[in-house]
Design a protein that fits this description.
A: alpha+beta; two-stranded antiparallel sheet; 3 helices; 9 strands; B: 14 helices; 0% strand
Chain lengths: 181, 276
């Protein structure tokens, strides 16, 4: 083999090795060296297991590996806006003599097509401690939340994406006093 | 040679730190804090709420359970993602270990993420005695936040009083043109709700004077002057408000809806009612 070819191959091979080393070191330094306790935080705190979620089966995310947050720009919103959402809930909710107070938080996923599914419910007191709120009240609000069908998905980096969303009902003596976020 | 020696020493130091991190109970409180800070800071680029990020925060807390900054950071993903029962214990621990920093901050979070105005005010009030100075959680004074919290409670007298206090101080410190736009806006709304239309208009005009474009100030002003018979003037103002909104000059917050937030349909409803 000619000398110049040997030198070229040597330089090329060496260069590739150095490049791999730099990329490997960068990956390790930035990501690889950090361990993940996936038993406690699988794979992130907001994760909703489709098997454990309400109405999780049959719901399809567009990309299971990348579900964003509702507040990513442009954020996920109800198709009729916050006013429309509030109006729908407030005009359909009936306080059937409930006396409970607390936060009823319903988390779910909005996929890139604007469909909602995989619901999970958190019931808390006004002091933010887990509790069981009136079952009929909870069922009613969950049923109403499920009727909010058409959402504007999160949009960023040029495309619609899946996102985690939640609605929080602050309830005082059975009355909804705030719908967040 | 010298370089090789330095490399070996670095490796040795790393090994010492690593071995210390394996058994941090042998460290002094200062050393524990230093190690916890290192573990915490090294992963600050990791996506918030991800398993890797949470694990590194938990590790920092394991090393130093009094490290308030890490305790707070551990709570944040739960706050933003609608899990209050998981947010509160961690944030309360941060407050316990560093109340001067985190109690007014907790007030801010109670105010916006939970609309718990009374708990928010209690935390802002506590900050009055915790520190000899006025605290500024999330960039605004606790007086400003109390003005908003009392507005949420419909206690307009207290709301106005705290906005007055905030505006007077900021004006004395930096001049009226440096006062946060929404202090005037919300004071105007508080006056409007209390039935003082003259004072309300003064505040809306102040916003428009200093900031020119404000969908909110123009919207609320148009609503106030709607019944004065000056239809053309009111309509022009409402249309300006709509334009300002389209250009992004409106009051809103990241993560949660703000108090008295306006939406596109609000302008349409106002314009239609003026035209009727």
């Amino acid at each position: 083999m000619k000398k110049w070819l040997k030198i070229t191959l040597f330089v090329l091979f060496g260069g590739i090795l150095i490049l791999i080393g730099v990329i490997g070191y960068g990956y390790y330094h930035y990501w690889g060296r950090f361990t993940a306790d996936t038993a406690t935080y699988p794979p992130s705190v907001e994760y909703i297991d489709p098997e454990k979620a309400l109405y999780g089966k049959g719901f399809k995310a567009c990309n299971e590996n990348s579900i964003a947050q509702y507040y990513n720009p442009e954020r996920a919103t109800y198709s009729k806006g916050k006013n429309g959402l509030r109006k729908f809930i407030m005009s359909n909710y009936i306080n059937k003599g409930y006396s409970d107070s607390g936060y009823l938080n319903i988390r779910f996923v909005i996929n890139c097509k604007g469909a909602a599914g995989r619901y999970i419910i958190h019931e808390n007191t006004l002091d933010l401690e887990p509790t069981e709120l009136d079952k009929d009240m909870t069922n009613q609000l969950f049923a109403l939340t499920r009727q909010l069908k058409d959402w504007n998905p999160v949009f960023f980096r040029g495309k619609n994406r899946d996102a985690y969303m939640y609605l929080s009902y602050r309830i005082e003596n059975g009355e909804i006093v705030a719908i967040l976020p | 040679m010298e370089r090789s020696l330095r490399y070996c020493l670095n490796c040795l130091c790393a090994a010492v730190v690593f071995s210390c991190s394996e058994n941090s109970s042998d460290l002094s409180s200062e050393e524990r804090r230093a190690l916890a800070t290192q573990v915490f800071s090294e992963g600050s680029h990791l996506p918030q709420g991800s398993a890797k990020s949470m694990t590194r925060i938990a590790r920092a807390i394991e090393i130093d359970s009094t490290y308030a900054e890490a305790l707070r950071e551990h709570s944040v993903a739960y706050l933003k993602r609608g899990m209050p029962h998981k947010w509160k214990p961690w944030f309360d621990k941060a407050v316990y270990h560093d109340p001067q920093t985190w109690q007014p901050w907790r007030g801010y979070l109670y105010l916006w993420f939970y609309r718990d105005y009374k708990k928010a005010i209690a935390d802002f009030n506590a900050s009055d005695t915790l520190t000899p100075y006025i605290d500024y959680p999330q960039g605004h004074s606790v007086d400003y936040w109390r003005g908003i919290a009392y507005l949420g409670l419909k206690d307009y007298q207290n709301s106005i009083a705290f906005f007055n206090k905030h505006i007077l101080k900021e004006t004395a410190d930096s001049g009226e043109d440096w006062v946060e736009i929404n202090a005037f806006l919300y004071r105007g709304i508080a006056y409007m709700q209390a039935g003082d239309s003259i004072k309300a208009l003064e505040n809306y005009d102040k916003v428009i004077h200093y900031f020119k474009k404000s969908a909110d100030a123009k919207y609320w002003k148009a609503r106030m002057i709607q019944h004065t018979g000056e239809k053309e003037k009111t309509l022009a103002l409402a249309n300006q408000a709509k334009e300002d909104f389209k250009e992004g000059y409106f009051n809103n917050r990241p993560y949660v809806e703000t108090l008295f937030q306006l939406y596109p349909e609000d302008f349409e409803v106002l314009i239609t009612s003026i035209n009727e």
